[in-house]
Amino acid sequence: MENNKYIQQEKKKNIKNILLIIEIIFGVIFLIIFISILQKLGDSFYIDSNISKCISEKSILYTSSTCGHCTEQEGILGKYKDDFNIINCVKDKSRCGGIKMVPSWFINGKMYEGKKKWRELRKITGC
């Protein structure tokens, strides 16, 4: 009889431990998803039309219609994309002389290669 009670108690402990482990796993998964979403949104929360205009007035973005990173860069610009002077080097090769890779940014007289987040663009332009 006592052995039966002991077995029942152990089963309850095991079930509680399993449930705790499952809760921890779901918590970690939720945290990973949440952090991933925040990273994708990045600093776009802190961008408004004035900042976008300031950056766009000081920069030119060189892209290619066949470039995945260029598409991502334009995605980062989001609703402010139309504010920017974007040159597609496939369609307008004559304006892309000296461009070694795309995306590239020409900002304040200097070339910056690779895609940039808003935070980087603000820092480079001083906006």
Key features of this structure:
127 residues, alpha+beta, Glutaredoxin, 2 domains, 4-stranded mixed sheet, 4 strands, 53% helix
List the helices and strands and how they pair.
Elements: H1 2-41, H2 49-57, E1 59-63, H3 68-77, E2 85-88, E3 104-107, E4 110-113, H4 118-125
Parallel strand pairs: 1-2
Antiparallel strand pairs: 1-3, 3-4
Structural account:
This protein has 127 residues and is of the alpha+beta class. The protein has helices spanning 2-41, 49-57, 68-77, 118-125, and strands at residues 59-63, 85-88, 104-107, 110-113. Helix 3 links the parallel strand 1 (59-63) and strand 2. The longest helix has 40 residues, at 2-41. The protein is elongated, with a radius of gyration of 26 Å. The mean pLDDT is 85.
Strand order of the largest sheet: 2-1-3-4
N to C succession of SSEs: HHEHEEEH
Low-confidence stretches: none
Number of strands: 4
Largest pleated sheet: 4 strands, mixed
Report mean pLDDT, rounded to a whole number. 85
Name the CATH architecture of the largest domain: 3-Layer(aba) Sandwich
CATH superfamily of the largest domain: Glutaredoxin
Q: Decide which structural class fits the backbone.
A: alpha+beta
Task: Report, as a whole number of angstroms, the end-to-end distance.
Answer: 77 Å
Shape: elongated
| Gyration radius over CA | 26 Å
The amount of helix comes to 40-55%
CATH topology of the largest domain: Glutaredoxin
Helical element count?
4
Q: How many domains in all? A: 2
The proportion of strand residues reads 5-15%
Reading off the top of the CATH hierarchy, the class of the largest domain is best stated as Alpha Beta
